[in-house]
């Protein structure tokens, strides 16, 4: 082989250095909640990887790793978990670290949930809303332990999931309980026992954050808003197609539109309804003289329901409407700089184990057969999931990709009068 001249050698070394430098600077220098949230390059998703109808069967490390590869291919880089009761969360963190060892450029971060209940929850004893369940201190302690073990992955701790909203009758707490644990975690940050740039929040329904009934407008909520690093808001128009359906249905002036156009108009109103709930929280927060970042901790749209939202009810649930809602909300959140933890990546059947067609089992973008629902068909076409599998199955399309077959199950909402 002919030897390179000194000038060529210098040029080659310079190009290699610049290439390496470009690769390094393509990753954020300091990854924190402050840099992740609101960044459209770091899409967020709620995660649960349970395959069976019981959480006693925890997904294996290999199964979770498969899920992570799929989510990463979708440009999802921030995951939300809900509790540390089971081994799944610890395995998720371990799987992320293993994938990083395989590929140092692999990025996945976690919003770690600590489940909070009131005293006597899930028992036949009287519920005491302003006292902790025996489990709460254990949850918080485990969340702290995991954050210390994985400070490079866990960037947010959420104290409670819909723990303050009063329709969560079996377990909801008064805001002072959430405030106590938020203050505890903030104090650990101040002492240096937790990372300084770790963000602490609580993830709850818009009403719990003051965006609805005034019964939630209490002093402890004001103090909680001051104590957290940002507000994590939940909004579910799909549920309100039954419970509060003023936005739902086909308007008289839309009667002559095609069925698809009628549905699209209804879904646009569902998006606007979700945005209004988010905005109402912001209005309440600013009315108190508080200015904290706000993001959506949960929203989603089920593809199946044999309950209030299905064909015998509000006719809200099918893969087409779920896909439209997903895209509308992603578009809005990306353009407004709001992170949106979409609920959820994969179907799980433990949530309503006695009713396989219950809506709670069908919020995923990918079903239990490893099929991408209509919302992700374009990604299948683009080859995003090429060489990726879930439980040994390639990611294919629902309905075998036959859109006409899908539309046979899509129902138009009723006319409004």
Automatic annotation (TrEMBL):
Keyword NAD part of the UniProt annotation: no
GO annotation terms (biological process): cell wall organization; polysaccharide catabolic process
GO CC annotation terms, alphabetical: plasma membrane
A molecular function (GO) term: hydrolase activity
The keyword Glycoprotein is assigned to this record: yes
Keywords: Carbohydrate metabolism, Cell membrane, Cell wall biogenesis/degradation, Glycoprotein, Hydrolase, Membrane, Polysaccharide degradation, Signal
Domain of life: Bacteria
Subcellular location: Cell membrane
InterPro entries hit by this protein: Beta-glucan_modifiers, GH
Membrane-traversing stretches: none
Signal peptide positions (record): 1-21
Predominant subcellular localization, coarse grouping: membrane
Function summary: Glucanases play a role in cell expansion during growth, in cell-cell fusion during mating, and in spore release during sporulation. This enzyme may be involved in beta-glucan degradation. Active on laminarin and lichenan.
Name of protein: Endo-1,3-beta-glucanase btgC
Naturally occurring in which organism (per UniProt): Flavobacterium succinicans
Organismal lineage: Bacteria, Pseudomonadati, Bacteroidota, Flavobacteriia, Flavobacteriales
């Amino acid at each position: 082989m002919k030897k390179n001249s000194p000038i060529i050698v210098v040029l080659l070394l310079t190009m290699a250095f610049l290439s390496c430098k470009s690769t390094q600077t393509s990753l954020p220098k300091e990854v924190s909640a402050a840099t992740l949230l609101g960044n459209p390059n770091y899409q967020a998703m709620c995660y649960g990887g349970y395959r069976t109808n019981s959480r006693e069967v925890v997904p294996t490390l290999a199964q979770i790793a498969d899920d992570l590869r799929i989510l990463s291919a979708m440009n999802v880089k921030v995951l939300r978990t809900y509790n540390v009761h089971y081994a799944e969360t610890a395995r998720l963190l371990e799987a992320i670290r293993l994938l990083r060892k395989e590929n140092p450029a692999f990025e996945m971060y976690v919003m770690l949930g600590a489940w909070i209940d009131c005293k006597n929850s899930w028992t036949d004893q009287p519920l005491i809303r302003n006292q902790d369940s025996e489990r709460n201190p254990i949850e918080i302690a485990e969340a702290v332990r995991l954050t210390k073990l994985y400070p490079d992955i866990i960037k947010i701790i959420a104290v409670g999931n819909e723990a303050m909203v009063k329709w969560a009758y079996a377990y909801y707490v008064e805001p002072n309980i959430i405030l106590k644990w938020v203050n505890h975690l903030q104090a650990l940050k101040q002492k240096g026992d937790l990372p300084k740039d770790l963000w602490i929040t609580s993830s709850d329904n818009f009403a719990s954050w003051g965006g609805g009934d005034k019964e939630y407008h209490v002093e402890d909520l004001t103090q909680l808003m001051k104590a957290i690093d940002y507000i994590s808001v939940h909004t579910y128009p799909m549920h309100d197609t039954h419970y509060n359906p003023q936005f739902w249905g086909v308007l008289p002036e839309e009667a002559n539109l095609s069925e698809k156009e009628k549905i699209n108009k209804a879904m646009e109103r569902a998006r606007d309804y979700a945005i209004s709930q988010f905005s109402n929280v912001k209005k309440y927060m600013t009315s108190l003289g508080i200015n904290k970042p706000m993001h959506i901790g949960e929203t989603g749209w089920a593809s199946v329901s044999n309950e209030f939202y299905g064909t015998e009810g509000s006719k809200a649930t099918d893969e087409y409407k779920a896909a439209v809602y997903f895209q509308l909300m992603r578009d809005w959140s990306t353009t407004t700089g709001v992170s949106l933890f979409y609920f959820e990546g994969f179907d799980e059947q433990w949530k309503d184990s006695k009713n396989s067609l219950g809506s709670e089992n069908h919020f995923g973008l990918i079903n239990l057969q490893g099929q991408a629902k209509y919302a992700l068909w374009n990604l299948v076409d683009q080859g995003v999931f090429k060489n990726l599998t879930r439980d040994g199955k390639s990611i294919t399309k629902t309905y075998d990709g036959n859109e006409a077959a899908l539309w046979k199950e899509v129902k138009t909402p009723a006319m409004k009068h």
